[in-house]
Structure formats: structure tokens, C-alpha cells
Amino acid sequence: MKYVILVGDGMGDLPVAELNNRTPLEAAETPFLDALCRRGELFLTRTIPAGYPPGSDVANLSLLGYKPEEYYTGRAPLEAAAMGITLGPEQTAFRCNLVTLNHSQDDQVHMIDYSAGHISSEESHQLITALEAGCANDMFHFHPGVSYRHILLVEGDYPQMNTVPPHDFTGQEVTEPWARYHSHFQWQALVDKATTILAAHPVNISRIAAGKNPANGIWLWGEGKLPTMSTLTERFGLHGSLISAVDLLKGLGINAGLAIINVPGATGYLDTNYTGKAQAALDSLRSQDFVFVHVEAPDEAGHQGLLTEKIQAIEDFDRQIVGPILHGLQQSGEDFRMIATMDHFTPLCLRTHTDSPVPTILFDSRQAKPGCGLPFSEQAAEAEDKRLHNSIANGELLMEKLLERRKHG
Ligand SMILES: [Zn+2]
């Protein structure tokens, strides 16, 4: 038996007036998801426990079969793992975004762009190198990542502060969360020095001259220590791989003991190498029993509030990931159980995540039971829940349902 989980990040949405009150998932043409759904089980899965922020970190940790209440420490240590940084027990990782801020005369701060115009890695590495040279000390060290996404490692005890993700504040005032970085002299010294270095850096001077958003601030968030997760092999006897363009997902996979397959041209955007991802998933299943495939594009479109792009991203996920993997498995003649779902909703009208339980399809190639007969949508999953009360309370139960076995110990 082969086991597959396919995740369209942030695919869930609310009814959109322009779509005659359908959701993007309802409006998109998704013949493969619909076929799986009609012939499979449809239910809601709670990926975000009550009181947790509805992040991709918490949600995908759930989809990998781990209860966030037991395993979640923060987003940054997962991304650090994907970047090859091994945290010591005394270290804390913070995610360090390069962002575009506007400081107005009356000391108001606005988040213009959480990604500094999706700055290139070539440019951002020069900036992070300058920050490490100018700001690092016994306590703080910068590690370059991809584009606007970097890591700050903090040694030992540090003054606590509540941090917030910058992508939740696009175009909004952030005077109050920005002030938190000035709540203690060690943070204040770091953030102010970084701001000065960034303002004077040639990379930013050229970006401004070219009409691009400069990376004129650092934004620290998502902090946490090394999580202690037993692997999926230890918990379920499962051997598998994870395919994603996103460091956070790769870090989750590493901590879950999965092999990380890096597919050339996997970008996380609409232009991602879908064919390569689907083929890599099928190839990995020849020698292993589990694969987790994550597609980022619907979430990106949701954050940007782009309706056409979101529909396109869902249709691409259906046609280029779900379809080929389904077809390949059917051709192989192997029995398989497949989940197709999303980690959370990213409604276009909100441009950020919500914690609604996510519509989830479970399809079994043996088809012992009759299917639900419905196409895949948020509304259909809710209707099934009303009819059957079949929602799944957490990711661990979802994994047990997929595998038809309980975790060991
Ligand atoms: Zn997500």
C-alpha cells in the first residue's frame, strides 16, 4: 500500500461576489479533485488547534500527523533546519524578514512590503552579509536564506518580546509591534543598527533608483527552540519523502524524518515546476511507502488578493499534481490511499490565513465503500459534516485514518 498527501496551500476560501458567491475552489475546474472526492470520503480536518495562530507551520505540522500542542515550538527553527542550521539546546532561531517600512514624520511606522519586493537572493545575501559584519556579537548572528527570508540565531537567554508575522500587516500601520523591538536595549541596538546599515547599502540605493521597494528594515518573528519530534518511521513505521519549494515545509519534513526531494524549478509561485514535482513524487513511491507533496501557489495568490491567479493556482494543482500522480499510481497497479487537502484557508478578502477546519478528501484505490458523490468544495465538506458528523479533530487522527493504523506508543 502506498500513502500520499497532496496539499494546496491556502486553497480554502470564502464565497466571492464576483464568482456569484462561489469560492475559488468551486469556480475552478478541478476534474481530478472532483473525481477523487466523488469516489472517496469528504470531511473537515481541524489543522489549527484552538488558540494557535493559523500559520502554515502549525497547519502542515498537523497534516504530517503531529499535534501542534505537543510538538510546535515556532516557525523559525523549522526553516533553520531546512537551511542546514542545527540549533543547539541554548539557541533560539528567529525568522528575519527583509521588509520595506515607511517611517513617517510623526513616528508612525507602516509595513509597505513584508518581502521587500521579493528581493533576489543575490541582493539579499549582500545585505545579510553586511548585517552580520556590522551587528553580530556574542548574542546575535545572521544566516542568509532565500529572497527576503533569513534567520537570526540568538545565543542563550534573551529579553522576551511578543512578535507578529509581517505578512499579516501588508499596507498597515505597525507602529506598536515595531515599538516592541525597542522594549529592551539589546534588541533596540540590533534593530536600529540594522536599519542604519540597510539605509546606506548600495543594494538599496540601486533598488530605490530602479523604483523597487528597498529592504530598509529587519522584522524578527516566528522564534523558537529546536523541536523534539520523533520521526514518522518511529511513530508509524512509515518511510517517505516530502516535496515542496518552501523551506518551512522542508524543515518540517526533516524533523519528521522524511527525505527531502528538491525539484529543480520548484519556486512556490505560479511558474513552479509542477511536472517535475509530480514525477518526483511517483519516482519516490517506487522505493518508499509515503509521499507528501506541497504546492504553495494558491496561498501566495490569496495573500496578494488575486482572484484569477488563485483560481489558476488551484487548476494547476489539480491538473498538474493531482491528475498525474493519480494516473501514475493507477498505472503502477499498486494499491494506494490518497489525501488531497489544504493546510488552512487564505481568503482573498482577508489576504491572510484563517483557522477554519479544512475540506479533506480521502480516496482509497480499493474503493471498498461507496464515495460521497460530491465535487470537492468547502460547502460540500460542510454538508458532509452536517450529515455524518465525520470531522477529524487533529492531524494525528488524520494520519491514523490515512494509514489505517495507530501510532506506536
Ligand atoms: Zn499555508
Keywords:
2 domains, Alkaline Phosphatase, subunit A, globular, 12 strands, single chain, alpha/beta, 409 residues
Describe this structure in words.
This protein has helices at 24-27, 31-38, 56-63, 68-71, 76-82, 121-135, 175-180, 185-200, 202-209, 232-236, 247-255, 274-287, 297-304, 307-332, 378-388, 395-403; strands at 2-8, 41-45, 91-103, 109-113, 140-146, 149-155, 217-224, 240-243, 259-261, 290-295, 336-341, 358-364. The model has no long low-confidence stretch (mean pLDDT 95). The protein has 16 helices and 12 strands. The chain has 409 residues and is an alpha/beta fold. The chain is globular and about 65 Å long. The relative contact order is 0.23. The chain has 2 domains: 2-72 and 228-403, Alkaline Phosphatase, subunit A, CATH 3.40.720; 91-224, no CATH class. The strands form 2 sheets. Strands 2-12-11-1-10-8-9 form a 7-stranded mixed sheet, with helices on both faces. Strands 3, 4, 5, 6 and 7 form a 5-stranded antiparallel sheet that branches. Zinc ion (ZN) binds next to α3.
How is the CATH topology of the largest domain named?
A: Alkaline Phosphatase, subunit A
> What is the fourth-level CATH superfamily of the largest domain?
Alkaline Phosphatase, subunit A
Beta strand count: 12
- How widely separated are the two ends? 22 Å
Radius of gyration: 22 Å
Number of discrete helical segments: 16
Question: How confident overall, as mean pLDDT?
Answer: 95
H/E topology pattern:
EHHEHHHEEHEEHHHEHEHEHEHHEEHH
How many domains, in number, for the residues?
Answer: 2
